[in-house]
Amino acid sequence: MKKSYLLLHLAVILAGFTGIFGKLISLNEGLLVWYRVFFSAVFLFLIVNLSRVSTRLAFEEKLRIASTGLFITAHWVFFYGSIKYSNISIGVVCFALTGFFTAIFKPLIDRTAFKVSELLLSGLTLLGIGLIFHFDASYQLGIILGVISSAFSALYTIYNERIVRHYDSRLINYYQMIGGTIGLGALLPVYLHFFPVASFIPGAEDTFYLVLLSLFCTIGLYVLFAEVLKEIPAFTVNLSFNLEPVYAIALAFLFFGEGREVNASFYAGLTLVMASVALQTLITVRRRRE
Description:
79% of the residues lie in helices and 0% in strands. It is mostly helical. The chain has one domain (2-289). Helix 1 runs parallel beside helix 12 and helix 3 runs antiparallel to helix 4 (59-85).
């Protein structure tokens, strides 16, 4: 259990760099995500084959795994859209809503009762994020895209939790990236018709950042993500990922001068976010012991 929590927080740290790459890469959100899933699928093909992971699955199983990749692909498109139309801070703050959407969607999908503790802890997290960052009315589109992004992230976690116990995490990530490549690729002609670009091919600098994004913040992150879901509930995982905005905002302040002064409000919000994660971790550990 302790190892799983360590892996979880390593994944959160990697996730903190995701928004940074979104700002560094000049491609629009649609092309950025397509290249991300495509490069990731290629790298995972090599990893799966070099590791001699068996890919002997029924077509229905492959399709089931690949379909969950559409959720994470949609999450990335809206997430990077939020960053492109606002800034890193807006995108990652809205990501904190993932825990709230998980607390709402999971009981509806599983047809179980809502858990008051999860709703309360989500509220505590949102209060903390609200203290860390005050939304600006000029970023309304970025905020809307960020909210939609967090909803898709919650759906991905819920459905991914159902398959991680049955398949190798590398294999899951491989078929999910294939699903994302094909699914988003099919929509790209329509997308680019409404959002035309000067060039479809990334430059050398963008390619370098895309490779790093694919290797560390996609393959490394989501293999860890799949592993921790075998031991830790989806709500706890998503709640722990609420620490991502803290890391990402600090990096945005450091490297991009997204100019907000760190004051008492920031530390008060940080304390609430960390408290919500700590409380949910304690509750989960106690329940498992009982």
